[in-house]
Design brief:
Helix content: under 10%
CATH architecture of the largest domain: Sandwich
CATH superfamily of the largest domain: Immunoglobulins
CATH class of the largest domain: Mainly Beta
Structural class: mainly beta
Shape: rod-shaped
CATH topology of the largest domain: Immunoglobulin-like
Number of domains: 2
Distance between the termini: 120 Å
Order of helices and strands: EEEEEEEEEE
Number of strands: 10
Length: 144
């Protein structure tokens, strides 16, 4: 009787991991949305993790979205991909644009209604409006 031998082989294919983050740098104004995309190659990939300035963001997908950029969002973002043998990472930077700080009042005047010719609480028959946004922006409003 003939004898048969069966050989079963498993082939495990792997390729070195590599990562890119797009965009590598973005400059955004206050309140604008930001998106980073982690594009990776190689296999197998077991995990994807995002970090900001070295702190784990707890995000494990290839796209990281920030709905409305705030001052604390600026910094370096890293995408790490890992498998059982290796890891790879790439970075993207979020910078703040020129119109970043929201307006902020540093001084306000008391609300007051005056009639033409009357003195207001500041001892004058006109009133001033002052707004400060980053640098002093001054406007005067006069009664007639």
């Amino acid at each position: 009787m003939p004898s048969f031998t069966f050989v079963v082989s498993f082939v495990s294919l792997s390729a070195p991991l590599s990562v890119d983050v797009e965009p590598s740098q973005q400059v955004l104004d206050y309140g604008r949305p930001a998106t980073f995309k982690c594009s990776y190659r190689g296999n197998p990939v077991r995990t994807v993790r995002w970090y900001k300035d070295g702190e784990d963001l707890g995000h494990g997908r290839d796209v990281l979205r920030i709905a409305s950029v705030k001052k604390e969002d600026r910094g370096m973002y890293q995408c790490f991909v890992r498998n059982d043998r290796e890891s790879a990472q790439a970075t993207g930077e979020l910078k703040l644009g020129g119109r970043f700080d929201p307006p902020e009042f540093v001084h306000t005047f008391p609300e007051e209604t005056v009639q033409p010719g009357e003195e207001n609480g500041m001892g004058a028959d006109y009133f001033h409006c002052c707004c400060y946004i980053r640098h002093c922006f001054y406007c005067s409003c006069y009664t007639s």
